[in-house]
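Troubleshooting: if your tokenizer reports a length mismatch, compare your output against this known-good record of 198 residues.
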Amino acid sequence: MIAFKNISQELPYSIFKEKYDEAIDAGQKNIEAINISSYRKEKEEVDSRYVNLKIIDGNEFIFFTNYNSPKSLAFSSHNQISALLFWPSINTQIRIKAQIKKTSKEFNQLYFTARSSKKNALAISSNQSNQIDSYDSVKKKYKYSLEFDNLLKCPDFWGGYSFSPYYFEFWEGHNLRLNKRDAYKKNGNNWEHYVLQP
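Known-good structure output:
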């Protein structure tokens, strides 16, 4: 589930919330799963991965991760991302383009404190995406953290990312591939609306 806080009343955000509510009513599983694509300049490489979108606050979409992870290094080298959600229960795809930035330490600490100790033990014990000798070692590090680490203190290497979209596309699948595509692009303080061909 995604927590909505003071969501923007601008049209693409209200459409997003309508689609979200439709998908929830249709029993959509893993509705918070969002694919984030990034570009890492020094490697000249594009990469994608799923993360859990946790919060939409105003016009900011927020998820959390390890700040030493490959995706974080990519965000540091190039702060523009694209994001993608697909909710098959309503046959809807939402494409987003945005600028991304870290959330504050204070925000991270508040969020971390509210999480379960098991989730926090994993965040503390994992050097995300680094190689390790075996899965058993992963479990041992996790169990050690669960028993001995301060699970209420957010580590400096963990926290949130916030991205504010400047482009939305709402794709609705229809029979005979007569798919409906509505795009919204930010222009100054306004959103321009386009209808795209299938």
